[in-house]
Design brief:
Blueprint lengths: L11 H31 L12 H22 L5 H44 L4 H25 L1 H14 L9 H29 L17 H15 L10 H18 L6 H56 L1
Helix pairs in contact: 1-2, 1-6, 2-6, 2-9, 3-4, 3-5, 3-6, 3-9, 4-8, 5-6, 8-9
Length: 330
């Protein structure tokens, strides 16, 4: 009896099992992605299904958007699915444009805030000087007039960019596809929905709009459909809430209320106004500082989204390049 070594040829079943395991891992990553979106969405709406839109909330929404793009990169970087990946690369350019435009609007508000800071400087140095009081009042009036132009003119480009981004949602490639390709396209649609929604809310807040520029609803296939659509409805309800103040952003409303209080005390020619003016100025100073802190948080949130998308695009392009090289060497 002779012992002979059996040839170790790759089995069809080995290849099949390897692909099956790979597909299962891909499905698990996709499920984890959906679950992470669900958890994050639930932090943006309180137990009463209502939302207060301020800089803190907008910053949290931008962090959610950044997180979504960062988590999606594992699913979108399959080198064998270049058609869908290319679509994301094209689509994300719009988001980068939106980030740049939002950053410009933040700078506009920062410059307008300087009018408040200048008025406060005049008040704090010599509140009894008639000329300084006149200049301080003029500076406060300039804040109000400049804000009107800002709200209704300078942000129109932002709204158009969001509309263009929403239109691209309808252009996600369709047709007969593999299960992996279906997951990738589904991920692109998820990222697109979150992007259009968050960008739309930020733009509406900056413009003081009474409606979202684009209405988006998540389809029933998504695990997070109920939370997404509930948050969408809560935002729409806040935009159209009866008795809503002039500005959508809480911090801008606070500034305007304190600003009008200061002007009202200054215009009151009768009675003792010194003590009342000092108290009103201190309150205006407080909300002005809060506004500055909020703008800083919002700016950081926009920068985070921009850097995350740039990093995701770079990583995706690199994976595609490596994948193509491997294909060529086979």
């Amino acid at each position: 009896m002779f012992l002979t070594e059996k040839p170790n040829y790759p089995s069809f079943f080995d290849s099949f099992n390897k692909e099956k395991k790979k597909k299962k891992e891909f499905d698990l990553i996709s499920q984890s992605f959906d679950e992470s979106i669900l958890r994050r969405l639930n932090t943006l709406c309180n137990s009463h299904s209502s939302v207060t839109i301020n800089f803190s909330w907008l910053s949290s929404a931008l962090a959610f958007l950044s997180f979504t793009h960062n988590q999606a990169i594992t699913l979108l970087s399959n080198p064998n699915l270049t058609d869908s990946s290319n679509f994301y690369l094209d689509d994300s350019v719009k988001l980068l444009d939106i980030c740049n435009s939002i950053a410009s609007e933040i700078e506009r508000l920062r410059h307008r805030r300087l009018l408040l800071k200048f008025a406060l400087h005049l008040f704090n140095n010599n509140s009894e000087d008639a000329e300084k009081l006149r200049r301080a009042r003029a500076s406060l009036t300039d804040w109000d007039n400049n804000l009107k132009g800002y709200r209704y003119d300078s942000s129109k480009n932002l709204e158009h960019l969001v509309i263009d981004l929403a239109f691209m949602l309808k252009e996600v490639p369709r047709g007969k596809i593999s299960s992996d390709e279906r997951i990738v396209r589904r991920t692109i649609h998820s990222v697109g929905l979150v992007t259009v929604f968050v960008a739309g809310v930020v733009v509406a807040a900056l413009r003081g709009s009474t409606e979202l520029g684009v209405a988006v609803r998540a389809p029933s296939e998504f695990l997070w459909v109920d939370s997404f659509n509930l948050l969408n409805s809560a935002i729409s309800a806040e935009l159209t809430r009866p008795g809503k103040k002039r500005h959508l952003l809480e911090e801008l409303d606070d500034v305007e209320a304190r600003l009008r209080e200061v002007i009202g005390v200054m215009d009151d020619a009768g009675g003792e106004k010194g003590g009342s003016l000092n108290g009103a100025v201190k309150e205006l100073e407080r909300v002005t500082e809060t506004l500055g802190e909020g703008l800083e948080r919002l700016s950081n949130g926009v920068n985070e989204v921009f850097n995350t998308v740039m990093s995701s695009r770079k990583e995706m392009v690199e994976r595609m390049r490596v994948g193509q090289q491997k294909q060529q060497t086979k």
